[in-house]
Amino acid sequence: MIRKLNIVLLCCVVVAVQSCMNHGTMDRRLFYADSLANEEKADYAMSMLMGVDYDNLDEWNRHYYDLLIVKINDKTDNAHKSDSLILDVVNYFKDTDSYAELTAAYYYGGRVYSVIGNTPQALDFYRKAYNRLDDSPSSLKGRIAYQMGRINLDLYQFEEAKIKFKEAIGYHETMGGISELVYSYRRLGETFEQIGDIDSAYMYMKKAKTIAYENEPFGKDNIGVSAQISNFHLNNYNVKAAVVEYDSILPYLSKDNTSNYSIIAGINVYMANGNFNRAEIFAKQLLKTKSIQNDKIAYATLLDIARNRNNLDDVALYTIKYKNCTDSLAKLYSYETKKLRNTLYNYSIRAEEHEIDSDRRVRQNNIFIVIVLLVGIGMVSIVGWVINHNRKLKRQSIIQLKRIEELIANSTTIVMPVAENEENLSATEQLQARFKEIISQVNPKEIKVADTILNSEVYAKLKHSLYTDMEVKPTDEDWVMLDEVVNQAYPEFKNKLFALAKLSDYEYKVCLLVKCKFSPSEMAAITFHSKTSVASTRSRFCGKFFCYNGVASDADKFILSL
């Protein structure tokens, strides 16, 4: 009996020792580093970690060290390049049942996958972190809700995004996270802007600006919000308001408080205002960020400025630099696509290996071979598709360029300046340049709808239906009448459109409504489509007419120019 009792006691001691070995005691230096990171002193936290002898830490503290490395890199905007480190941390803390550490690891795993472009895994990790937290308010729940809202916004899931951003705002208001609160209001405003609710969008952006200014006048958050509001005004054709908003922060811009987004906003504002000197300064400042994407934007701006100034030397120089950036981005996209495929595969393998026994790993190797073969076949197919697509785009651009040139030659409203050095541009680039030059001449606010249309019976019927809460459902006869009235006011309008591209019945109806200057909300009501659908249809016109990935407002300007 005593012997059995001794065996039981021995087992208890072994279990207790193993438990202590598994969970460990946090090294106080790691605790201080974590505290510094939470206080937004990430540089100091990293310096403290660098003074820790990693090899002399026990296993628990080594994994906690790795978690802190991921956390600090996230706070200092150092791009996450791989999921290997955070996956190892997640698996270890899952095995040791470390509640707080596993919750944090899931959150930063979501951040890693967000950065490397694996949206499904990012959302999965955020949900796991969120579900581990209780119902009490916390800053972490606010950050998770914000990140999930961002993913919903990127996926055009606007209703879900609104819910998550409002949830994040509630947590941050309770916990006092000023920067997080500002960003949540900004994203909520962006969400409303995407769905066409301009008043709500502006209200939330102004709320973000007020909070940021009260916390730190003309600090980084305040500058960022003002830049966003400037872009908001530009998107709504209010150039004057955009300039006023940006001019209010211009004297306070510095290296410490100005993000790339704020610089690009300055470029957009001053290019729209025709202040090429300031736009040039911002473009050259953007070149210092050492980003290929930013370089492309900067060189495109400098090229437009050089053309406006008729500086042929600069046109030639910036054309070459812009093309080099475009080529580099194409190569980078190909590389990132391969890397994402490998990331998706590697995560699947590691996750399964963590849960299956050694007998099943043999079968996993067979799956690996099959997946590699399928990925290889898929990559060959993608490369073939890209090559064929580029050939098709080139042929389409040549045909479309001829049609646009004929339209310009026969137009009395479109005045096209003589372009220089076009031998350096492909047909697609020439076509897109024509598009930019045409829409640059169009100010929608200055264009009035012809009296023939305004005085027509069908126009009055549509307007009356819209503003008397009657059901707006035009008959086929109404559309025919609207078509006749528009083409009477603007001869050859329909022929010009169909000479450029084949349009569906719905697409042509949208063109008619744009020409009559109905608002996006009115067009949605008249056509029985959502505002998002109407906006997508209008933006696709840029691709149909000019092989250009433009926005709805750009297409509107071109249609109004006909």
Care to give the gist of this entry?
The chain is an all-alpha fold and 562 residues long. Helices cover 77% and strands 0% of the residues. The protein starts with a helix and ends with a helix.
Shape estimate? globular
Order of H and E elements: HHHHHHHHHHHHHHHHHHHHHHHHHHH
Give me the Rg, rounded.
29 Å
- Poorly predicted ranges (pLDDT <50, ≥5 residues)? 1-22, 347-359
Mean pLDDT: 81
Determine the structural class based on helices, strands and strand pairing: mainly alpha
User: Can you count the beta strands?
Assistant: 0
| Count of discrete alpha- or pi-helical segments spanning 4 or more residues | 27
Strand content: under 5%
What is the helical fraction, as a range of percent? Answer: over 70%
Taking the sheet with the most strands, its summary is: none
N-C termini distance:
101 Å
Give the topology.
Elements lengths: L1 H22 L4 H11 L3 H9 L8 H17 L8 H12 L3 H18 L2 H13 L7 H16 L3 H18 L2 H17 L3 H18 L4 H16 L3 H11 L10 H14 L2 H12 L4 H18 L2 H44 L2 H53 L16 H14 L10 H4 L2 H11 L8 H14 L3 H8 L4 H11 L4 H8 L3 H16 L5 H10 L1
Helix pairs in contact: 2-3, 2-4, 3-4, 4-5, 4-6, 5-6, 6-7, 7-8, 8-9, 8-10, 9-10, 10-11, 10-12, 11-12, 12-13, 12-14, 13-14, 14-15, 14-16, 15-16, 16-17, 17-18, 18-19, 25-26, 26-27
Features:
27 helices; single chain; 77% helix; mainly alpha; 562 residues
What does this structure look like?
It contains 27 helices and no strands. 33% of the residues are buried. The radius of gyration is 29 Å and the shape is globular. Helix 8 packs antiparallel against helix 9 and helix 13 crosses helix 14. The chain is mainly alpha-helical and 562 residues long.
